[in-house]
Structure formats: structure tokens, C-alpha cells
């Protein structure tokens, strides 16, 4: 889905990691690398950025966000074929894992981790005041996501943040200053009847094309 206006200035990716086992998560490239081959000719199919199923058109950024699963698979964020955050890069931690990217140039501005489980403050996120856009992916919602944090994500275009519960899986790419809700969002409830893992819902993966901010 291409949605003009989703990305205007700054991309901000966030993952929320489970409180245990995060140092043992396999890297994205090992668990989710798409090495597809033609079953007929035995030839490798064209590879797209971030291992996505399709290439992005001109002036769009390719992204893939993986939520992780329980304490087995760690979250990862890929942007324009570069893994910004993952366990193999040793830059993820318990709580919110954030990567800030310039929406015009695609340049990585910063990465950070906020320990929401011990009451870490999201207000120190560091998004530029004039930034019009942010992109988020959140994994494993925990009780520490209070109303103020939920309101922050709602402002960025989330439709489901108000429904999130303990250990839910949620991936979200939003934008500061959006007129409408973001088209990039997935949510799965923690439900003992449907959970794929014991006490945890299945992994969520979201890929797509984010429009470049054009002057």
C-alpha cells in the first residue's frame, strides 16, 4: 500500500522487547532472510530491498519491521536494505527500541532504547519539534504503556493503541502531523486460545514502501 503523505520529514521506528532473553535473539538475516528460488528453472528470483516481496517505486523507501516472538526471535527494523536495529547489532534492549531516520535523505539520525518496564520516559525520545512524520513498530505491549504514551501513538496515526493489552503484538508505522490514520498497522491480541507460543501471540511482520519527503 502506498500512501502519499505518510512520510514527510522524519521516520521513527520503534520496537518493544520482552524483558527476558533478548540477548539470545537470532538476527533477522538468519530467521527471515528470503532466499527464494524458482522451482522450475532453479534460478534465484530478483531480490528486493529488505527481502521484501516487491520493489518500491522511485521516491519511496523500502522498510520491513519484525515484532519478534516470545523470547525466541528478537525484533528487527530494516530500512532501505539496512538493518537499523537487531540483536546481532547489539542495539536492542528491554522496552522501546527506537530508530530515527531523515524522511528526505533516508539517513539514520539516532537509535535509542527506553525501558518502559521500569517506567522509562518516552518524552525524551528526541523527535525534532518541526518533524512532521514518525514511523513506529511496537512489539509485546506491557502494562507500563500508560495513557500518555498511548496518546502519543494516537497522535502519530495509530488506530489500535487504545486496544492494546499485556503481551499483545503490535507493529505500527505512523506519522507526526497525519491528517488520517496510518495505513501501516497490525495488531494481534494475547489470547490463550489462539497464541502460537505459550503465553505469547505469533510474530508479526510488516513490509511496505514509505514515500520520501519531497520539498
UniProtKB/TrEMBL annotation:
Q: Which domain of life is it from?
A: Eukaryota
**Which UniProt keyword terms apply here?**
Disulfide bond, Lectin, Secreted, Signal
What sequence ranges are listed for the domain ILEI/PANDER? 94-177
Q: Where is the signal peptide?
A: 1-23
Gene Ontology MF annotations: carbohydrate binding
What PROSITE patterns is this protein classified in?
GG_LECTIN (PS52031)
- GO cellular component term of the entry, any: extracellular region
Q: Where in the cell is it found?
A: Secreted
Q: Which family does it belong to?
A: Belongs to the FAM3 family.
Q: Which PANTHER family match?
A: UNCHARACTERIZED FAM3
Task: Write down what this protein is called.
Answer: FAM3 metabolism regulating signaling molecule D
Organism of this sequence: Malurus cyaneus samueli
Tell me the classification of the organism that encodes this protein. Answer: Eukaryota, Metazoa, Chordata, Craniata, Vertebrata
Amino acid at each position: 500500500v502506498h500512501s502519499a503523505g505518510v512520510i514527510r520529514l522524519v521516520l521513527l521506528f520503534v520496537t518493544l522487547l520482552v524483558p527476558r532473553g533478548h540477548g539470545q535473539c537470532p538476527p533477522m538475516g538468519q530467521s527471515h532472510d528470503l532466499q527464494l528460488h524458482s522451482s522450475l528453472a532453479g534460478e534465484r528470483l530478483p531480490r528486493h530491498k529488505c527481502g521484501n516481496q516487491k520493489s518500491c517505486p522511485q521516491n519511496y523507501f523500502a522498510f520491513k519491521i519484525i515484532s519478534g516472538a516470545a523470547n525466541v526471535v528478537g525484533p528487527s527494523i530494516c530500512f532501505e536494505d539496512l538493518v537499523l536495529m537487531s540483536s546481532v547489532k547489539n542495539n536492542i534492549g528491554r522496552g522501546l527500541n527506537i530508530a530515527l531516520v531523515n524522511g528526505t535523505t533516508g539517513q539514520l539520525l539516532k537509535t535509542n532504547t527506553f525501558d518502559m518496564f521500569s517506567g522509562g520516559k518516552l518524552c525524551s525520545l528526541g523527535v525534532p519539534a518541526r518533524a512532521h512524520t514518525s514511523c513506529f513498530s511496537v512489539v509485546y505491549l506491557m502494562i507500563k504503556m500508560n495513557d500518555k504514551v498511548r496518546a502519543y501513538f494516537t497522535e502519530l496515526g495509530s488506530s489500535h493503541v487504545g486496544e492494546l493489552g499485556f503481551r499483545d503484538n503490535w507493529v505500527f508505522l505512523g506519522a507526526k502531523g497525519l491528517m488520517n490514520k496510518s495505513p501501516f498497522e497490525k495488531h494481534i491480541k494475547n489470547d490463550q486460545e489462539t497464541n502460537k507460543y505459550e503465553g505469547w501471540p505469533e510474530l508479526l511482520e510488516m513490509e511496505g514502501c514509505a514515500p520520501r519527503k519531497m520539498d
